[in-house]
Amino acid sequence: MEKLDEVLNRLGEKMAKALEEPASRSPEAGQGGARRLLPDRHPVRDFFIADIVDWALKDDRHSMEHPFFSLSKNPDYRIRHYEHNGIRVTIAPSAYGLATIWDKDILIYAVSQLVEAMNQNQPVSRRVRLKAYDLLVATNRHTGGKNYERLAESFRRLAGTRIETNIATNGLRVREGFGLVDNWKIVEKSTSNNRMVAVEIILNEWLFNAIMAREILTLNRDYFRLDGGLERRLYELARKHCGHQARWAITTEMLHKKSGSMASLKEFRRKVKMIAEGDVLPDYRLHYEPEVDQVLFYTKDGRKLAESLARA
């Protein structure tokens, strides 16, 4: 069996070669083939939302650590139970199905707004008003009419999905149940086509406590260019566990559990290999080691990786 340090040394050589290649080889996400980043759909920003897209993208580290969201674009009505190291999470769908990892974009956007307001010493509350157009642009979505209705569908799933957990936020650990958002409503409509212009959501106390305690992490904005649900989830886990370190290793079985994937372990392993070959994740690469059935995540920062290997 090959030692981990030997694997890392080989990966370091690959990293050095990769750094000499162009950073992006294709703008489009493939279906059934190699994974690609979606194109940046709004490379030229409207002047009145320029300040929004320049904000640091923030996500709460608890939903990055544990599988709260469906990774499927198809409706999912299954109740899920997750337990690890004393942490318990139950996720129950509504009639609209489980909230998806793409629905989570709304929460990421809202969290980012609140954190930016806190950084500017502005008052914040659980009630957040969102401009629908700004939300679509910031999350790299099309701005056609049907996308506004898709936002409404996301709000329904977020409000309807019920979470029961004992995860502590801001030092408080109680067993509680809540919706991913407490409430939402359209507060302004277009006079020409009746589509939503502005929407107001009330975040649940659990998430708001995490924001107030700064239990958050910064995401790469290319996260919104990841088309696949599993790719998004693997990036979340890499960002949470690897963070600014050079590397992080995890068994495939544990990664399968933490991802929340409903695929069989065999199918999950196949998908992870495809994602590793596609090399599409922002900031991180991953490498599957069949001899030990584990996945190694490592930084795309060649200098940081070299320093880590030198210390090993």
What's a quick, concise take on this entry?
The protein has 312 residues and is α+β, with helices and mostly antiparallel strands.
Could you please describe the fold and organization of this structure?
The relative contact order is 0.17. The protein is built from 11 helices and 12 strands. It is globular. The chain has a 4-stranded antiparallel β-sheet. It has a 3-stranded antiparallel β-sheet with strand order 4-8-7. It has helices at residues 4-18, 50-53, 61-65, 104-119, 132-138, 145-160, 205-212, 229-241, 252-259, 265-278, 302-311; strands at 57-60, 80-84, 87-92, 127-131, 162-165, 176-179, 181-189, 196-203, 216-219, 247-251, 284-289, 294-299. With 312 residues, the protein is of the alpha+beta class.
Unreliable residue runs: 15-33, 46-50
Largest sheet, order of strands side by side?
2-3-5-6
Helix fraction bin: 25-40%
Strand coverage percent: 15-25%
Nearest-angstrom radius of gyration?
20 Å
Q: How far is it from the N-terminal to the C-terminal residue, by CA?
A: 18 Å
Strand-pairing-aware structural class: alpha+beta
Globular, elongated, flat, extended or rod-shaped: what is the shape? globular
Order of helices and strands: HHEHEEHEHHEEEEHEHEHHEEH
Number of strands: 12
Number of helices, counting only DSSP H or I runs of 4 residues or more: 11
What is the typical, i.e. mean, pLDDT?
Answer: 85
Largest sheet: 4 strands, antiparallel
